[in-house]
TrEMBL record:
One of its GO terms (cellular component) is cytoplasm. This is Xanthine phosphoribosyltransferase. Pathway: Purine metabolism; XMP biosynthesis via salvage pathway; XMP from xanthine: step 1/1. 5-phospho-alpha-D-ribose 1-diphosphate binds at A128, N129, G130, Q131, A132. The gene is xpt. Pfam families: Pribosyltran. It comes from Oceanobacillus halophilus. One of its GO terms (biological process) is xanthine metabolic process.
Length: 194
């Protein structure tokens, strides 16, 4: 998605060879106009998939997930990472280990919001090692619903998550794939049109 790549080039800050800071429009401050376009793009890519729910993980996945759900005319379910006062029983849960942050969190959703009849699109802001996506897929599996695909705003193509998910036959749509962050520069993977 050209507009997203331009935004990353203009405002992204390379913090190391593996970490890109995009706080100005995605992780801290949100650009709602860009988010709306991101939602439209995901909705277009999954338009024929018969999506009934969009599932994301708090917190940075929420904005793109809500915009996508709006375009698809469905609701968004947010998997919680922290224990919630009201999210207390009848939960589907999974463990997610972050290699980037070196921490493990338990993610949960209420059984009320995804059922075996659902066809779920998973949306997240970053894809690195794929642990968050796998945890969300685990939750969908527990509910008996189907994973229709995964939409990612920024995939770090030099980390293994994206390819591992695609090798499992999952439709993974990433709006910008970063090939490398070496030398303080963002290099995007060229899109191959088929
Ligand atoms: P994985 O799920 O693909 O295995 O990713 P990983 O554990 O490496 O990432 C854990 C957290 O770090 C996620 O945020 C993810 O979005 C974020 N992250 C990973 N790589 C980058 C990066 O290069 N830049 C930025 N900005 N974030 C990155 P989180 O803990 O879920 O935080 P949030 O959603 O509350 O913002």
């Amino acid at each position: 998605m050209e507009e997203l790549k331009q935004k990353i080039s203009q405002e992204g800050k390379v913090l190391s060879e593996s970490v890109l800071k995009v706080d100005s429009f995605l992780n801290h401050q949100i650009d709602p106009v860009l988010m709306q376009k991101i939602g439209e793009e995901f909705a277009t890519r999954f338009t024929k998939a018969g999506i009934t729910k969009v599932l994301t993980l708090e917190s940075s996945g929420i904005a793109p997930a809500v915009m996508t759900a709006l375009q698809l005319g469905v609701t968004t379910v947010i998997a919680r990472k922290r224990k919630s006062l009201t999210l207390i029983d009848d939960l589907y849960s999974a463990e997610v280990h972050s290699f980037t942050k070196q921490e493990t969190s338990e993610i949960s959703i209420s059984k009320d919001y995804i059922t075996s009849k659902d066809n779920v699109l998973i949306i997240d802001d970053f894809l690195a090692n794929g642990q968050a996506a796998l945890g969300l897929m685990d939750i969908v599996k527990q509910s008996g619903a189907k994973v229709a695909g995964i939409g990612i705003v920024i995939e770090k193509g030099f980390q293994p998550g994206g390819n591992q998910l695609r090798e499992r036959g999952i439709q993974v749509e990433s709006l910008a794939i970063i090939e490398s962050l070496n030398g303080g520069k963002v290099k995007f993977k060229e899109e191959v049109s088929i």
